[in-house]
Design goal:
Length: 155
C-alpha cells in the first residue's frame, strides 16, 4: 500500500472516530471508576477505558515517525476497539465520572511502579508516570496525557 493511501485512510479513521458513540459508564457492574489529577476514568468489564479529562486538552496522533496534532480540544477520550486508536467522544456529559466524583487512583491502586500508582482491571491498566504524566493501555491501544496534550499512536 502506498504511504499516501495509508495516511489518507488514517485521516479518514480519525475523522470518523469523534462520531462513534461512547459507552454508558454505569452499564457494567464490574466497572472500576477512579480519578487521577483532574481526570475521572472508568475501566469497564470488557477492558474498555474512558476518561473525562477535567479540562479540554489537545489530541495528537503519532503515525510512524510523523506527528499529527488535531486542532480541536477534547474533554473525553476512549479506547473501546482493538482496531481503532484512542479517540475522543463528544457526548456533552461526563460519562466516566460518578456522581460526587471518582475515588483516587492512590486509594484503588493494584500496584506501584517507580513513578506512582497503577490500577489494573479486566486486562487494562492506567498509571501515573514520570513528572505526573498519565497513561492508559487497553485492547492493544493506549494514550498518554502530559503538559496539556493527549497523545496516541496509530500503527
Amino acid at each position: 500500500m502506498k504511504r499516501s493511501t495509508k495516511f489518507a485512510g488514517i485521516l479518514a479513521a480519525a475523522a470518523v472516530a469523534p462520531i462513534l458513540p461512547a459507552g454508558n459508564a454505569g452499564a457494567d457492574d464490574s466497572t472500576l471508576y477512579f480519578s487521577a489529577g483532574s481526570m475521572n476514568c472508568a475501566i469497564f468489564g470488557d477492558g474498555s477505558i474512558g476518561c473525562d479529562l477535567g479540562s479540554p486538552l489537545r489530541l495528537s496522533y503519532t503515525v510512524g515517525t510523523a506527528y499529527l496534532p488535531l486542532s480541536i480540544p477534547i474533554n473525553e477520550i476512549l479506547i473501546d476497539q482493538s482496531w481503532l486508536p484512542a479517540h475522543p467522544t463528544f457526548d456533552g456529559g461526563t460519562p466516566y465520572t460518578l456522581a460526587g466524583g471518582n475515588p483516587s487512583i492512590y486509594d484503588l491502586k493494584t500496584g506501584q511502579d517507580m513513578w506512582g500508582p497503577v490500577v489494573e482491571h479486566a486486562g487494562s491498566s492506567c498509571r501515573i508516570g514520570f513528572h505526573g504524566s498519565f497513561t492508559c493501555n487497553a485492547k492493544g491501544r493506549g494514550f498518554s496525557a502530559y503538559s496539556g496534550i493527549i497523545s496516541a499512536a496509530i500503527p
